[in-house]
Amino acid sequence: MQKKHRFNYFILLVALMIAYSGSLMAKSIDESASKKNASAEKSKSTKESRSTKDTKSLTAATKSSSTDKSKKNIKSPKNPREVRPTVLPRSAKHAEPVAPRVSSGTALGLGKSIDELNLKSKVAMVVDAQNQDVVFDKNAQVVLPVASITKLLTAMTVLDARLPMDENLEINEQDAAIYKNSRLIKGTVLTRQEALLLALMSSENRAAYTLGRNYPGGIKTFMSALNRKAKEIGMTHSSFEDPTGLTSKNVASAEDLAILVNAAYQYPLIRQFTTTPNYVKEINQREQLFLNSNRLVRSGDMEVVIQKTGYISEAGRCLVMMALVNNKPYTMIFLDSVGIGSRFADAIRVKEWIESTTQHTVIRKLPSTKASTN
C-alpha cells in the first residue's frame, strides 16, 4: 500500500514537471512572437516614415521645379559682376582684359584691299630697277612702321662715317638692355664689321644698337645722321628714332623703302652682308651659328642681290629686296604681311608673275635716288 502511494506521488511529480516545462516553452514562443511582431511594427513604421519623407521631398522638389520654371519666365536684370565672357586664370580673375595687338595696317583697314596677285601683304610695290618704272602698286604711299628694315639705313650711316671696320666693340649693359633675347651676351667682343654683318644678315638688334652707340658723338648724334641720310636720298615720308627698328615710331612708305633699297644697293658691303646665308661666331668659348633671316637667301629660290626683313607687332611681317628675274633687277617691297612665311610667298608670286608677263603696264616712275656711290 505504501509503495503504491509512492508510485502515485512520483507520477504526479512527473506530470507537474511536464506541465511546468510546457508552460515555459509556451511563454518563450509567445515572447518570440511578440518580438517578431514588434520588429514588424517598427519596420512598418520606418517604411511609412520614409514614404512620408519621400512624399514630402517629392512635393518640395515639384514646388521647387515649378518655382524655377516660373523664375525662368521672369527676366531679371543682368549682374555684370556675375557675367564671365571668358575664363580667366585665378590670379588674373579681376584683371582688366588685354586687347590683342594689331598692326598699323590692320588698324587702318588696309586688310580689305584686294589686288590682282592676291598678295597677303597689305602694302606692296614692284619696281623695274633698270628704269625705275613702278609696275605694281598696293597702298605704296601709306606710311607704316618698318621694323628692322631700319637696319639698312643704320648700315649706310655707319659706312658713310668711314670708321675702322676692324675696331673691337663690346656689348655693354646699355646694348643688352635694348633687346632681352640675344646670343650676344653682355661682354661679347666683336669687330665693327662683325656687328654690321650680324645686324644685316640675322637682324641682330644688339649688334645694330652697339653700332649706333659707338658712333662718334654717341647714339643721339648717330640718329641725327641717320635721319639726315634718309632725307638726302629722297625718303620724304620717313622718320626714325632708333637704329634697330624695335620702336613703332620708325616709319616710312613703301615708295620710300624702294628708294632706300636702290640707295643701299650702291654699297657693296651691304649687298654682301644681306645675302650671306650664315655666320659662325665664338661667344663665351662656344661657337654660335647665326642664320640669314630671309629664307629665300638660305634656300636659293630667288636670285637675291640685296634684302632686309623686319617684324614687330605694329609693323607685321615685312620684306624689302632686289632680285634678278629674267636677268633684270626688280625692287620688291612687302609690308604688314599676314603669317610668318607669307611675305616670302608673296615674293615668289611676284617673281612668277614677272616671268609669265611679257609686257607690264607702267604705273608711274619712282623718284630717282639721290645717294652717291659709296
Task: Write a structural description.
This protein is of the alpha+beta class and 374 residues long. The chain has a single domain, classed as DD-peptidase/beta-lactamase superfamily (Beta-lactamase). A 6-stranded antiparallel sheet has the order 9-10-11-1-2-12, sandwiched between helices. Strands 3-6 form a two-stranded antiparallel ribbon. Strand 7 and strand 8 form a beta hairpin. About 13% of the residues have low confidence.
**CATH class annotation:** Alpha Beta
Q: Structural class of the secondary elements?
A: alpha+beta
Rg calculated over all Cα atoms: 45 Å
User: How many domains would you count in the coordinates?
Assistant: 1
> What is the N-to-C order of secondary-structure elements (H for helix, E for strand)?
HHEEEHEHEHHHEHHEEHEEEHE
Number of helices, counting only DSSP H or I runs of 4 residues or more: 11
Strand order of the largest sheet: 9-10-11-1-2-12
Under the CATH scheme, the architecture is 3-Layer(aba) Sandwich
Average pLDDT value? 83
Give the helix proportion (percent range).
40-55%
The CATH topology corresponds to Beta-lactamase
CA distance, first residue to last residue: 166 Å
The shape, in one word, is: elongated
Q: Could you name the ranges where pLDDT drops below 50 across 5 or more consecutive residues?
A: 44-49, 51-93
How many beta-strand runs?
A: 12
* CATH level-four homologous superfamily name: DD-peptidase/beta-lactamase superfamily
Proportion of beta-strand residues:
15-25%
- Describe the sheet with the most strands: 6 strands, antiparallel
